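Box 4.2: Ligand-aware structure prediction
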Amino acid sequence: MVTIFAISTHQRIYSRLWHEPLDVIVYPINGDGTLHTHNYIQSLTDNDFTEIDRWISREAERFDLPQKQPLQTRLGHQVKSDPPLLPTNNNVAAIVWWGLKLRWWVWRNTPDSESNLRRVRVFVSFRSDEAELPHSVGLQKGLIGVVHAFSDPSQNSQNNIVIAHEILHTVGATDKYSYFGTPLYPQGYANPHRQPLYPQRYAEIMAGEIPTSSYSSYMAESLRSTRINTITAREIAWIE
Ligand SMILES: [Zn+2]
């Protein structure tokens, strides 16, 4: 256990130094087992995720981060099993047990090594049906993200928002939306000092939606209309 703890602590520190690009590998999963999703996964290339790297470079520049390329995202091999699902209740023991099962599952599917101190693994389970997707998660411990997404090219830009959101969780960012999914003020606003406050022009990445009033907001369509605010920047150690 001591070794595991030591690796986790190193991982937490090294992943947030930002002195070289943090490697992100996206592992696709055929979440519904359909031919449609199979074909979609076959069509994916590294280029489908460069939007994430370009976006975070733009945000880093706004914060004068010396590192010009904070992330280097690429496509990994297809993973042939489904990650354990996050319990839907808030039972602490069930969530702890799920966390252990998930880390075991990750280790089985992408064997670990000490070189993982600066590698984020994002498992994206794609499906084609209209059903409500399970919640996506990002864990700082282990630098692991699990994303549930639609296997449709028209959804790529929104999928990249969710992937970027979960990557930022792995380096310490927290959620900034309410129980009802609306951005919290001020922490969930890209520009909480804007005059007039509404409508906001951008979504804060950890809130995901663009506020149009104190009680209404809409989903950002792509990372182009999404920003990192100073609160998130502080959480991911970009600023003091
Ligand atoms: Zn989140």
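In the box above, the bound molecule is zinc ion. The CA atoms of residues 35 and 41 lie 10 Å apart.
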